[in-house]
C-alpha cells in the first residue's frame, strides 16, 4: 500500500525475499553488520565496521541483561549483533528474521563461536511471534521496525513475550525536520529500495502507550549516525563492481543522502510494567 507521503507499506514475505536475494551484495556494501554506524564524537576515527559494532553496544548497554537473561533479537540480520550481544553479555539470545538466507548465515555464525556463546536464530514474523507469553527478559530491534507494516502490532507482540519489567530497545528512522520536495523524493526512493518506512517522533509515545509499555528514553542520535553512515556507504559504492551494485537493485544513491538533515535516526527504550496486585 502506498501512502500519501510516498512511503510503501512493507510486506513481510517480500522483505524476506529481498534480503534473501541481496544477502551477499549487502554484505559487500554494508560489511559485517547490516545497520548504521555510531560515531561519538561525530568526527571520531572509528572505521565503519567499528562504528556499527559501537551502535550494537549502545543498545546493549540499555538492555540491562547478563548471564541467565533471555534476549529476543527482532530482525536479526545475519546474526552479527545477536552473537556479539550473547558473547559480551553472557545472555541467551534468540533471533528472528523473515529472511531464510539470513537465518542460515546467522546460525552458521553462532556455531562458529565458542560453546559459551548461546545464540540461535529462527525464521519468523515479528507480527506473530512464535513464543509463549512472558518468555524473554528483554528485546532488541536494531533497524528492524523500519520494515514492519504495523509497528503497533509488533510492539504488542513484544510486550506479550516480555516478562514484567522487561525492556525493549529499538532504533527507527524518523522525519527529523520537514523535508523539501526534492529531499523527500530522494528519501522516498531510499525507503522504497529497502522496503521500509519512517515515523514522526510523536508517533512513538502513542504507539508505546497503546501497546502497554512504559516510556523510558528517546534520543535523536542522527548526528552520531546518519551522515557518517551515508558517507561510508557512498565511498564503498564508488569502489564496488557494477555487478555487485546491480544485484542490490537500488535506484537510490547513498551519496544523495549525506546532506539531508531531515532524515533522522531514533533510539527508543521502554519497559513492560511490573505486575501489580
UniProtKB/TrEMBL annotation:
Query: Gene3D superfamilies from the xrefs?
Result: Vaccinia Virus protein VP39
InterPro entries per the UniProt record, alphabetical: Erg6_SMT_methyltransf, MeTfrase_dom, Methyltransf_11, SAM-dependent_MTases_sf
Q: Does the keyword S-adenosyl-L-methionine apply?
A: yes
Q: Superkingdom of the source?
A: Bacteria
Q: Which residues form the Polyketide synthase-like methyltransferase domain?
A: 59-273
Q: What PANTHER family does this protein's entry cite?
A: GERANYL DIPHOSPHATE 2-C-METHYLTRANSFERASE, ZGC:194242
Keyword Transferase carried by entry: yes
According to the UniProt entry, the coiled-coil residues are none
Keywords for this protein:
Methyltransferase, S-adenosyl-L-methionine, Transferase
Q: Which organism is it from?
A: Streptomyces leeuwenhoekii
Q: What is this protein called?
A: Polyketide synthase-like methyltransferase domain-containing protein
Amino acid at each position: 500500500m502506498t501512502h500519501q507521503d510516498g512511503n510503501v507499506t512493507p510486506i513481510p514475505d517480500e522483505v524476506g525475499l529481498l534480503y534473501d536475494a541481496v544477502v551477499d551484495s549487502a554484505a559487500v556494501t554494508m560489511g559485517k553488520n547490516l545497520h548504521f554506524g555510531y560515531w561519538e564524537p561525530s568526527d571520531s576515527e572509528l572505521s565503519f565496521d567499528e562504528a556499527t559494532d559501537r551502535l550494537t553496544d549502545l543498545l546493549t548497554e540499555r538492555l540491562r541483561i547478563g548471564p541467565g537473561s533471555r534476549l529476543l533479537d527482532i530482525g536479526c540480520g545475519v546474526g552479527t549483533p545477536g552473537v556479539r550481544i550473547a558473547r559480551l553479555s553472557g545472555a541467551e539470545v534468540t533471533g528472528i528474521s523473515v529472511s531464510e538466507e539470513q537465518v542460515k548465515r546467522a546460525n552458521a555464525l553462532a556455531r562458529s563461536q565458542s560453546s559459551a556463546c548461546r545464540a540461535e536464530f529462527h525464521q519468523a514474523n515479528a507480527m506473530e511471534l512464535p513464543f509463549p507469553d512472558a518468555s524473554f527478559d528483554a528485546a532488541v530491534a536494531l533497524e528492524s521496525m523500519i520494515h514492519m507494516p504495523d509497528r503497533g502490532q509488533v510492539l504488542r507482540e513484544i510486550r506479550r513475550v516480555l516478562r514484567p519489567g522487561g525492556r525493549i530497545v529499538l532504533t527507527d528512522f524518523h522525519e527529523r525536520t520537514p523535508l523539501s520536495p526534492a529531499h523527500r523524493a530522494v528519501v522516498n526512493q531510499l525507503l522504497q529500495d529497502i522496503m521500509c518506512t519512517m515515523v514522526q517522533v510523536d508517533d512513538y509515545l502513542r504507539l508505546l502507550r497503546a501497546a502497554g509499555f512504559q516510556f523510558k528514553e528517546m534520543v535523536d542520535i542522527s548526528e552520531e549516525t546518519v551522515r557518517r553512515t551515508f558517507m561510508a556507504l557512498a565511498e564503498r559504492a564508488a569502489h564496488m563492481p557494477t555487478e555487485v551494485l546491480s544485484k542490490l537493485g537500488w535506484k537510490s544513491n547513498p551519496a544523495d543522502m549525506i546532506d539531508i538533515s531531515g532524515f533522522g535516526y531514533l533510539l527508543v527504550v521502554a519497559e513492560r510494567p511490573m505486575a501489580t496486585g
